[in-house]
TrEMBL record:
Its main location: other. It comes from the Bacteria. This is Cytochrome-c peroxidase. Keywords: Heme, Iron, Metal-binding, Oxidoreductase, Peroxidase, Signal. GO terms for molecular function: peroxidase activity. It is found in: Cell envelope.
Length: 592
């Protein structure tokens, strides 16, 4: 009896395996066919947009919105499988800077087209037509990529989940619809698009109902300024992304072998352990662990690094969210100060560039630079390593943290240990985080309204991206952005002038990024005053007023390359207070 059963079980296993393979192949074929039809629609919409350049402003704008809708139906694919082409189709309307190659690439795509037609100046028709034709050319490249793409079920589901995260972090903030302000309405289009794709995997009534509920919620209040983003995220977006992951588990589809900025097991963008710190580390040796972190913490608070003049903690104090409370940090020379404000180190491990001018790609590089800086420590990592070798207790801990170490403490071990400690400073346990994970009692009505203003009318969320609230853009978190704000040297001067610090262009001499500075995290911002790279603003009230007026342009500082929109926000006193209340909710518990 047993011997007869084994072949049958083996036969059944082979049949099931063949069925699963066939099903995967069918999904691949169906998804590709589905996308090709949508790409045909997008092509036709672009042709109509081109023709509308000869029509009225109203007709042109409607054709533009139709093209945006057609693109949004494919965005989940384009952003995931063709990110470079996606930037050409719907990237930010700002030049792309390649610092290493000293090159500037002009922007293109829907956001550039948007600027030409809101309002439409027919004198710029030639430029508009050029941009639309450029868009069409990018669609040709997208078609080639689509035809060459081999889909897998795990990748498709991952792309759909990331599209939900993109809606939260970029879509409903108006990041790619700054003028037409259709980001909320387009979120419904994107959700419907992934719903159609998910149907190709089979029936899942629960997940489809969750997506439909999210779309219906948007339909009830699509007004950009009035949309309740907090409720939408908690009651709908988080539910949908969690539902996609649950269904993948139910279908027994193995997660991807590789992980990028977010762990594959991430259910919502606000999961406590969503971020994969390894993604932001350049070498396997630098991947942090408990031993490296413990060693780095000791080094951080020990002046041995500088040769007994000062420790890292002198300018980065834990009770001030690892800042020092000064406009500009104290230099080694008595009575002197360094060039810039001391930035928080919290969440610094989750960005792609360090320093206000973004000159270092890694935390290890930042540590080396600070230690060597004549105004900060005026030492060297090499000398620090030699000093540490002579301390038996430290030598023992280095040997524990770096088991492959021989009888010498290498300078890179010092840098890696310090960087590992800094990478550990990302607790994600503020009241805001707890609210986003379902504890509705953690935020007040005013704080919730402040978040909605932050992500909507006040436009803060288009530069300080949720959930890191820095310039590292979701959902891929591959780039950290900088902005030209027109920060004054003295905002209290009768006639303010721009601060002379050239920021990013100091090293590259690229004029487009003169006065550009990295967009820092706003987490724990209640503890990190004064603000800006030069500590110009004493409190959050002054910062909000500055943005409300339109940055430097609003106080009489005229910069051709200001990236912050110069339009006044027209925030009321109540709205400003609510935004500040929200910002204070970003303080991590245990940091005071």
């Amino acid at each position: 009896m047993f011997k007869k059963t084994v072949p049958f079980i083996l036969f059944l296993f082979i049949v099931l395996l063949s069925y699963c393979t066939l099903k995967s192949s069918d999904v691949n074929k169906d998804v590709k066919a589905h996308l090709l039809k949508q790409l045909d629609t997008l092509d036709n919409s672009t042709i109509q947009l081109l023709a509308a350049a000869n029509s009225t402003e109203a007709n042109l704008q409607q054709a533009f919105l139709n093209t945006r809708i057609a693109y949004k139906k494919m965005e989940w694919f384009s952003e995931y499988y063709a990110p470079t082409t996606s930037r050409e189709l719907n990237g930010a309307p700002l030049p792309e800077i390649e610092i290493e190659e000293t090159k500037v690439f002009e922007p293109s795509g829907l956001q550039v087209i948007e600027e030409y037609i809101y309002p439409y100046d027919k004198a710029a028709k030639t430029d508009l037509v050029r941009e639309i034709n450029s868009f069409k050319s990018s669609l040709v490249r997208l078609r080639v990529i689509l035809n060459d793409t081999e889909f897998t079920q795990a990748h498709i589901l991952d792309a759909c989940k990331l599209e939900v995260f993109r809606i939260i972090g970029l879509g409903i903030s108006g990041f790619d619809t700054p003028i037409c302000k259709t980001g909320v309405e387009e979120a419904a289009i994107s959700l419907a698009a992934i719903a159609d794709v998910l149907k190709l995997f089979g029936e899942n009534p629960t997940l489809q109902e969750q997506i439909n509920a999210a779309i219906l919620y948007i339909g009830k209040s699509p007004d950009f300024d009035k949309f309740d983003r907090a409720e939408f995220i908690i009651r709908h977006a988080n539910v949908v992304s969690r539902g996609i992951l649950n269904w993948q588990n139910q279908l027994a589809i193995k997660p991807l072998n590789t992980e990028l900025a977010l762990h594959n097991s991430t259910a919502t963008l606000f999961d406590k352990n969503a971020f994969n710190v390894k993604h932001f580390v350049n070498t396997a040796e630098a991947i942090p662990d408990a031993r490296k972190i413990a060693l780095g913490k000791l080094l951080f608070f020990d002046p041995v690094i500088s040769g007994a003049t000062r420790a890292c903690s002198n300018c980065h104090q834990p009770q001030l969210a690892f800042t020092d409370g000064l406009p500009k940090s104290v230099a080694l020379t008595q009575g002197k100060f360094v060039k810039r404000n001391s930035p928080t180190l919290m969440y610094a491990g989750l960005q792609n560039n360090q320093f206000y001018d973004m000159r270092s790609k890694t935390l290890e590089g930042q540590a080396t630079d600070v230690i060597a800086n004549k105004d900060e420590m005026h030492a060297s990592v090499e000398d620090a390593a030699h000093r540490l070798e002579k301390k038996p207790e430290y030598f023992k801990q280095f040997k524990t943290a770096f088991p492959g170490m021989d009888s010498v403490i290498r300078p890179r071990y010092v840098m890696i240990a310090l960087a590992s400690y800094v990478r550990s400073l990302a607790p994600f346990n503020s009241r805001f985080d707890q609210y986003m994970r379902g504890n509705s009692r953690k935020l007040s009505k005013d704080e919730i309204n402040g978040f909605n203003l932050f992500m909507g009318k006040a436009k803060c969320g288009t530069c300080h991206f949720t959930p890191l609230f820095n310039g590292t853009a979701p959902p891929v978190f591959a780039n950290t952005e900088a902005e030209v704000l027109g920060v004054p040297a003295d905002p209290r001067a009768k006639h303010p002038v721009v601060d002379p610090d050239e920021g990013r262009s100091f090293h590259s001499k690229i004029s487009e990024i003169k006065y550009a500075f990295k967009t820092p995290t706003l987490r724990n911002i209640a503890l990190t005053a004064p603000y800006m790279h030069n500590g110009a603003f004493k409190n959050l009230e002054e910062v909000i007023d500055f943005y409300d007026l339109g940055g430097g342009a609003g106080i009489g500082i005229n910069l051709d390359n200001q990236t912050l929109p110069a339009d006044k926000l027209n925030l009321t006193v109540k709205e400003k207070n609510d935004i500040i209340a929200f910002l204070k909710s970003l303080t991590d518990e245990g940091v005071k």
